[in-house]
Specification:
The protein is mainly alpha-helical. 55% of the residues lie in helices and 4% in strands. Helix 2 packs antiparallel against helix 6.
Length: 181
Amino acid sequence: MSPESTGQNEHYIRVIRRRFRAWRGHRPFWAGLFTMAGGIPIAYFPYASMTLGNMTLAMSTTAGAGSLIIGVLLITLGLTMWYHSIVRVFAGVAAILLALISIPVANIGGFVVGFVLALVGGALSISWAPGKPTDARATPLAEHSDEERSADELHTAAAVPQQGSGYDLAADADGGRHRAG
């Protein structure tokens, strides 16, 4: 048997996954991901061209710069939601407004895909709230130190001592006193 703890023998992928889940739990992760995913088609489609056989289909419009700015701003707002979750409400409102502006500016909001993703990401960002610590009254009494408890709580939380195999019932008959006294 080794004196090592079991945490040292853990696979590095499991450790990375656990750290990522802890990081993800303290911020509006999905809101940022949807907002960034909405910014990509809004910025990409006005500059994309598709080739079908010998025919080239260019989707570039005169508002290409506007759609590029909207897409880059949505990606920036998604990263802001991840790394500065304190401004999540502002970032969510700004993402919703940029998604609405992308409808007339950027090929119907990146052919509706970018519009919907940015709208959902903004709504998730506005609705996300950090978890609150549990109330001290709601936790079980065993988790509190004795200084935090009142006298009544201490009396009700007192446990009956466990009786071992060598417990003498005769010693309890006289109130726990010695026979001599």
